[in-house]
Amino acid sequence: MTFKNLIQTRIMGRLVIVREDDAVRLEGHFPNPEIGRRYFAGVMILALLIIVSAPALYYGASGTPPQNLGELAKAIITGIPAALAPLVELARTWVPGEPPPDLDGWGFALGVAFMLLMFGGVTAHLWRDLTDSPYLAVERRDDTLIIDSGLHRTPVVIPRGECRGVHVARRRSGYYEVLLQHAGTLTPVAIVLDGERRALLLKAKIDAMLTDDQERKPS
Fold first, then answer.
1. Which of 128, 181, 123 shows the shortest CA–CA distance to 151?
2. Is 27 strand, coil or helix?
3. In contact, 112 and 6? CB cutoff 8 Å
4. Which pLDDT does position 215 carry in this prediction?
């Protein structure tokens, strides 16, 4: 992938067709949106637990800290009413110009949860970029079709005569996946983040490569 094609595919989101003698190469940028989702979901659950538990422990703190998980859970449950008290007081009795009730516990919990979500989001994004193979290249050369899904995977070489068609399927997550059918097998080509329209466009481009009906203008 040349620098120009990298800019067009990664920044502008285009599908680029490159012709070299008897070869035709389709290049695009298709990061897998499902990578890192479970990690970020875990971070969100942890942030919610902090929002609930930190104020409960702050406002309902007893003289001795919890010694085990059972005591910790009991302290959180029994501390929830005390944690809600300053919020109720703020909503019912506070007027502008007067000192508000003690909200340090809630401020600490929200601050930690916000930083955790920011860190989790950045980490999930970096994890996807480091482990994913977002640079897609589909090349038709002689009687073969080569699918190179990125930086960390071995290209898949398929005899062109075995290709039976290109399909678009909707995954459980709601994203669309482009699949190549050949010799009774479905080989994943890309998971499309930008919706069904771009998945159908990628399908049409690959179909054109297989049938020699090439479009003259890259999208």
1. 128
2. strand
3. no
4. 43
